[in-house]
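Lab meeting minutes (informal)
Scribe: AK
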Amino acid sequence: MKIEVCCSDLASVRRAIEGGADRIELCTALELDGLTPTREEIRQAVSMCHAAGVVVHVLIRSREGDFVYNETEAGQMADEIVMALEEGADGIVIGALTKDGDLDVPVCTRWIAVAREWQKEHGKADLGITFHRAFDVCRNPMQALEEIIAMGCNRLLTSGQEPSAVKGIPMLKKLVEASAGRLCILAGAGVSAENYMQIVEEAGVCEVHGSFKGGVPRR
């Protein structure tokens, strides 16, 4: 079981490392539910984390609001993927929907292709791709799960389509069973040191995600 800590600045990255995080999801502007961090923020966070043996995944999200992106926005985020990988990110966190609430498979496939091509060109041995909580507002979660797997994502960050992962335990369990080990279900939203084991044990997830402002849970 792994713990991913969501960090929006270098101070929170430092705390997460000291607390024993397995992985960092780096973003900025948490008050806007997270946006793509700057090149310098990525560079410094990667340097800190890699020195401590901690993995860094970077959120790719160009603006606040919904997850329906036009061509210009999609192109901007493709460039941000390359930027994150150039600065040493171990993975990216992406997600896009159509106006009808389905996964925007063409846009996500394009982003993944950009990442995989960069990986191939630069000989990067491993690259994580997480589909983020845009999933939690899609209209057909089980269909979306299959699409996320088919696109080549390694991980799905979700609260089980509920306001918190604790409330979403029934759906999280269903997703774990349906995914059957083809990707990792990463439970997030309202996860704390006090409730993370309940989520792990009852839903069967392999990883949890949170800001853990009260401290990264000890295992």
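Next up, CB showed the second protein from the same session:
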Amino acid sequence: MLNYSVLMSVYKYDNSKFVELAIESVLNQTLKTKDYVIVVDGPIDGQLQDVIHRYEKEYSEISSFYLDKNHGLSYALNYGLTKCKYEYIARM
């Protein structure tokens, strides 16, 4: 079976409900990932923080990494690439 990472970036203007739906979508795929990397690009609100923490606590394959300030999507994704465990990476 193929091992792959999933890479996702979130930032302060992301809707927490949409982030939750995105996480659920990945978790419900037929071919499951063992490495789900979420990069938090700068400070976020409590609601979005709660969603990420809840899933990270419940699913061991989810890891979140925090950038001190918003650097932009390309920077956040490039940073996230360094945290992925597998050669194949699905961008969420």
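CB comment: The mean pLDDT is 97.
No objections, moving on.
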